[in-house]
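Consider the following input, taken from an annotated entry for Lysophospholipid acyltransferase family protein (Microbacterium panaciterrae).
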Amino acid sequence: MTEDPEPDAPADEDVAEELHRAGATYLLGRMILVPLTRLVYRPRVEGRTNVPKTGPIIVASNHLSFIDSIAIPVAAPRRVHFLAKSSYFEGTDFKGRLVANFMRAVGAIPVRRGAGQAALDALDEQRRLLDAGLAVALYPEGTRSTDGRLYKGRTGVAFLALQTGARVVPVGVIGTDKAMPVGAKMPKIGSKVTIRFGEPLDLSHHGAANSGRARRGATDEIMAAIHALSEQELAGVYNEVPAQGAIEKIRQALPHERR
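Applying the prediction step yields:
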């Protein structure tokens, strides 16, 4: 599998520095990960030609397992970036450096995750990557599905697409939850995995990013496309992280837009 050339480096110095650091590691990682993944899992990849080779795109996928963030970059015909906890890149011992190099090898960009300002910083990081003409991968459900069902999409992906004009490539990942179930420390050898890339979605017809109706309509279109590819049972609800404390429980119970 050959690599498509990357567009010009982003103007943002922090992003540019990280991408520069990751460049050689990424290419070396591809040389190792791609044949290894093919040998161990023999993944079936469908619709690779649906992924635009240049320009900003958001790869929006269902989320079943930790290895989704490995399977998608390995299967994609171009470099795909996703955000990962900055702690994965900060280890100084042998294991820490190994983890950091592995994360860079699959196209990960470090970011401090959390609520409030951390969440806004993550959104800004994704916007900078898209403004640079790169491809980012996101999970509209927000977190992994532990029961195999497809949950309602949160509007953050649609907001980013509407704000930047990036097209969204829907992806249906099948079988990764069997290959590495939640809680497993190592993936199972021989599990069948399928990655399906759908046709790019231009969501601009829904309206402006500052419109709640536009964000909701665009999100529903994204999730419908993912559902057609993944063929999962629909949960019909959001995949909420268990609430911690009385205030958070009240917040989840009240109507609000899931971002």
